[in-house]
């Protein structure tokens, strides 16, 4: 039997080798191969029906693989009894119902059962652990209440406390914050992350909230139709193409300005209400960019099917992130630097290859003045020009009048002027149907 393990084999704590699982002869998981390194925080993401819950059940030995094997610390999970599993892996489920009328304290104390001798009750150490964890999870004040009388959020906090008192090296989070208010979501994720960092816990999270996952994860495993679609470091696998392939949803991926980490937001495509047909595939459009002025335009043109290039854009600019996410060819410049002669020439080369140049409602300074010069050169090359004039150039010129002078000269030529980005597609149809 041959297989290829995905991921670096560096002190693996979990190894999944050629694992498949069938429900009544129907495949739920198909030949999974991956490793989880010790003390890593990984998230398993995928749409409903991808196999995430089945994988959690396999890792916690609720069910056994139909094919293949799972190793925990080098030992086949089939050969571990349930007490041994409970000392290795703790699972925080989405929700738990308890048939008996236990108190909150009794419910949390159940988490110590793997450590109890058959003929002895709890020891002082067990009570101390339970009390400490309950205080950390803000459940100690609920200790005398009946578990079944609690709200859904309170019950989830109690189950998290019960899981933590197991003191396992591996914690599986199966949508653990789904019933919690946002303040508790963040608090508990910070708590799990602290366990991961300070107590060398290996965390495996199943999440629907991608942004919550990527704020804490080091690796992401994408599941699609019961198979591994992609697995690796967050920055390597979290991209627009993968998310579109796995979730069938268009998104924008940027960087959180506070944390510096990636974040995902839906791409609310305004073009659906603008055109019914895709644009001319052979029509090439170059968009002058900068300061976030071109992002919506790039999105409109991309979703309408046009071939697009853009520039010159400074690194760290929103327009650059948009171009990267959409796979658009761009000319870039160093952050906070004026456009260099080299970047300007590259921009002109892209303009030479295009049919239309679009000038967004840019702010002009001495650093990006050459982008306006590039539009003037495009006119000399007989390119069609579309200017988006959202407000007066006098309010956007920071060059002491130099930009105003050139802008007004450009407007005297044969150019097309519109007020809103949303008018671009209709104008393109008018220009090229005449």
Structural overview:
With 434 residues, the chain is an alpha/beta fold. It has 15 helices and 18 strands. The protein has helices at 52-59, 82-88, 104-109, 124-136, 152-164, 182-198, 210-216, 234-237, 240-247, 295-303, 318-326, 341-352, 369-380, 402-411, 424-433; strands at 12-23, 26-37, 41-45, 67-72, 75-76, 89-92, 170-174, 202-206, 219-224, 227-233, 251-255, 262-266, 284-288, 307-314, 329-333, 356-359, 384-388, 416-418. Strands 6-7-8-3-9-10 form a 6-stranded mixed sheet, with helices on both faces. It has a 6-stranded parallel sheet with strand order 15-14-13-16-17-18, with helices on both faces. Strands 2-1-4-5 form a 4-stranded antiparallel sheet, covered by helices on one side. It is elongated.
Helix share of residues?
A: 25-40%
What amount of the residues lies in strands? 15-25%
Low-confidence stretches: 1-5, 270-280
Termini separation: 64 Å
Mean pLDDT: 87
Number of strands: 18
Structural class: alpha/beta
Arrangement of strands in the largest sheet: 6-7-8-3-9-10
């Amino acid at each position: 039997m041959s297989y290829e393990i995905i991921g670096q084999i560096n002190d693996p704590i979990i190894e999944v080798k050629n694992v498949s699982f069938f429900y009544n002869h129907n495949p739920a998981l198909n030949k999974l191969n991956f490793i989880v390194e010790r003390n890593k925080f990984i998230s398993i993401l995928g749409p409903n029906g991808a196999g995430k819950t089945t994988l959690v059940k396999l890792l916690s030995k609720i069910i056994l693989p139909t094919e293949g094997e799972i190793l925990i610390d080098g030992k086949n999970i089939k050969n571990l009894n349930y007490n041994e599993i409970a000392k290795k892996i703790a699972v925080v489920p989405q929700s738990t119902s308890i048939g008996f009328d236990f108190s909150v304290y009794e419910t949390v104390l159940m988490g110590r059962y793997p450590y109890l001798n058959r003929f002895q009750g709890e020891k002082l150490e067990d009570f101390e652990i339970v009390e400490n964890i309950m205080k950390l999870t803000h459940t100690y004040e609920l200790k005398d209440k009946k578990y079944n009388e609690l709200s859904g959020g309170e019950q989830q906090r109690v189950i998290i406390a019960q899981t933590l008192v197991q003191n396992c090296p591996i914690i599986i989070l199966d949508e653990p914050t789904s019933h919690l208010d946002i303040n508790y979501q963040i608090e508990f994720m910070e708590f799990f992350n602290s366990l991961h960092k300070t107590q060398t816990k290996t965390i495996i999270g199943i999440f629907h909230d991608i942004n919550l996952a990527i704020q804490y994860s080091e690796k992401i495993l994408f599941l699609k139709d019961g198979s591994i679609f992609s697995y690796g470091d967050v920055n390597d696998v979290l991209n627009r193409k993968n998310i579109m392939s796995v979730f069938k949803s268009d998104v924008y991926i940027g960087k959180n300005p506070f944390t510096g980490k990636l974040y995902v937001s839906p791409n609310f495509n305004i073009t659906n209400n603008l055109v019914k047909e895709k644009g001319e595939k052979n029509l090439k459009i170059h968009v002058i960019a900068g300061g976030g002025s071109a992002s919506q335009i790039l999105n409109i043109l991309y979703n309408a099917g046009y071939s697009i290039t853009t520039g010159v854009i400074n690194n760290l600019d929103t327009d650059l992130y948009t171009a990267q996410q959409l796979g658009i060819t761009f000319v870039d410049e160093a952050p906070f630097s004026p456009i260099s002669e080299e970047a300007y020439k590259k921009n002109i080369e892209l303009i030479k290859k295009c049919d239309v140049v679009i000038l967004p409602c840019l702010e002009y300074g001495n650093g990006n003045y050459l982008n306006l010069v590039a539009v003037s050169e495009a006119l000399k090359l007989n390119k069609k020009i579309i200017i988006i004039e959202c407000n007066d150039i006098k309010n956007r010129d920071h060059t002491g009048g130099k930009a105003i002078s050139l802008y007004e000269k450009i407007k005297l030529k044969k150019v097309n002027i519109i007020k809103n980005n949303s008018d671009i597609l209709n104008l393109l149809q008018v220009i090229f149907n005449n």
